[in-house]
Design goal:
By secondary structure, this protein is an alpha+beta fold. The chain is 47% helix and 18% strand. The chain is elongated and about 70 Å long.
């Protein structure tokens, strides 16, 4: 990126609503989104931890952890995208529900009826829905993050 690390630090401060100490997540009013703030989190001298700023509640928003540094004219950026703790918990819970439902169906050792198939399809469908929602919002947030970077030729 054609931006000095000091300028990148200042740029992050212009798009990130800083997190109060000891607070995990805040729900913001939509008027704050119009102010140019795109992310919420903390910024250190060489690293940051941010999440996309959205109106309303969405527990699937991922967490970006990154570090930056480089020469006086260029910034080298390393970003890791993690799932939110809520989405990890929900997918884990749904995985346990699917396995339990499957084991209960197999343990009965009787003729499988349409009710058995339905009871297995419900947790499998919910698990798939949570997994796909998590992937969708993660991909959307990654695009939003990289489109917000200065000098991004793909921003649009």
């Amino acid at each position: 990126m054609q931006l000095a690390p000091v300028n990148f630090y200042n740029y992050l401060h212009s798009i990130v609503l800083l997190k109060p100490a000891g607070c995990y997540l805040v729900w913001v009013e939509s008027s704050l989104l119009d102010s140019g703030m795109k992310f919420y989190g903390s910024i250190e001298a060489q690293s940051f931890t941010i999440t996309p700023l959205i109106a309303g509640r969405n527990f699937f928003t991922p967490i970006f952890r990154g570090s930056y540094g480089g020469s006086e004219s260029e910034t080298m950026l390393h970003v890791t995208v993690k799932d939110s703790p809520f989405s990890i918990g929900m997918i884990l819970f749904m995985t346990i529900a699917v396995v339990t439902s499957f084991l209960e169906t197999v343990a009965n050792l009787r003729t499988v009826t349409w009710q058995d198939v339905l009871w297995l399809a419900i947790p499998v469908g919910l698990w798939l829905a949570f997994y796909l929602l998590n992937r969708y919002f993660k991909r959307k947030a990654v695009h939003r993050f990289f489109n917000a970077l200065p000098g991004n030729p793909y921003a649009g």
